[in-house]
Amino acid sequence: MQIVSVLSFFLVLISFVSPSIQGHAPVPAPDSGNGVWSGYVDFSPPARGSSSGTPAPSPVSEVRGDETPSEEIKGSPPTPTPAAEEDGHDDHPVVARPEETGPSETVKWCAVRDEINDCNHYLNLLKQIDGYTWKCVRRETIEECLESIKKGEADLINLDAGMAYIAFLNYSMKAIANEVYCNHAKIYDAVAIINRKSCSKREVISLIDFKGQRSCHGSYSTASGWNYPVNHLKELDDSEEKDADKMVSSFFSGVCAPSEFQGTGICSGCGSEDGSCHTNSLYSGDSGAFRCLVEELGDIAFVRDDTALLYSMEGPQNQTWSTKSIRDFMYLCPQGGCREINGYPGSCSFGTVPANVIMASNSISRKKKSVVLKTLLNGTWVDALDTWKNGAGHLLSSSTQGLYVVKKLTRSYLGVSATISQSIQKSNLVRNGSATIDSTSDGSSPSARNAQHPSVVTVFSIIVGLIFQAFSIL
């Protein structure tokens, strides 16, 4: 009788704890989005005056200039703990926000600094769907926007692949739509731009020849401005320096790489900005890095492939500082040599970068996500993208011609870019003495996975003890 009792208890215990052991708790059904967004929406201009419908009410701007940036990021983005994506197949389900109901639902797009102008203009063109009102929320940095989305004070932000990786890794966010460029391209190239006269000084020139000179970067932690070229530089540099920031600072005599995150960035080469990294730096972003080169604060600029075409004297986005012709510059090929700037660098690049993405919280309700995608993909943005010109800040990239639904998990969408970002962040964590990044991250939380280990050990200890007790009775 004792044997039967012990074995019965043993079987009940196994059935009770088996879900914890296996890690297969029920997950919500994936949001397939079938029947609503089949993919690409073309923004190529239709016949003028063909649009119709009742104009949407002007969007409301929410400005909060007194917000203190979060203390979570100090010196580098925090140790990664990505939450599982709602649309994926991870074993750590996300607790979604309640479905919004009632007449006062809003979608809040977070605009960084001068992006607020674009935000108000674009959102004024969007038609309301299912009673949702669109609103612009202004913040001073991308970091503040990510914190606001984390707190539920905003819903959306458009990010480059480098920043998107940080949002995915540290702020439990996912990509829901990506920009589409000319010829339906969903990628662009990370390139280096130098003065044409530098190419004519020697028969073959390469990045190594710029050691000891000054560099301009399209913002710290961005894919084309920082991650891709720094990753290439790590492969070229003979030093044993593992810290990416120190390596770049020792390779170049001056570095201008303003950051959107408090306590990061290198700004020793940003002219009169006294070596500090101001979030409103004149030299932040791709346009700022090109300006740094135009104004001769730097000898080489790391940007996306169309930057010089857009912001040179002849470019459609030319500014008051655009005093030089596109003919004054050339692409510097990573393998050596120069190439004319035509927007198609080919092999003369550090690699292709996934198109910028619109990011939202993993916990965004399915209803709100559905409304967001239907609104964006059916929005009358044609004239805005074709004629709106605001060089101070762009809610979408200047080259954007359409949007496409992201149907992959965020980590899969970012691909090689995420791997490069991870490599750069590892070096920063080494500098700060932090834990290493989980190189096998698939969207589930390493901390959540590790938290299961003690309970698993305890359960198996009980099972082993019961087995020994059963045999001792026998």
From TrEMBL:
It holds the Pfam family Transferrin. SMART domains: TR_FER. Keywords: Signal. PROSITE patterns: TRANSFERRIN_LIKE_4. One of its GO terms (biological process) is iron ion transport. InterPro entries: Transferrin-like_dom. The keyword Signal applies. It comes from the Eukaryota. Residues 46-102 are annotated as: Disordered. The keyword Signal applies. Residues 107-422 form the Transferrin-like domain. This is Transferrin-like domain-containing protein. The lineage of its organism: Eukaryota, Viridiplantae, Streptophyta, Embryophyta, Tracheophyta.
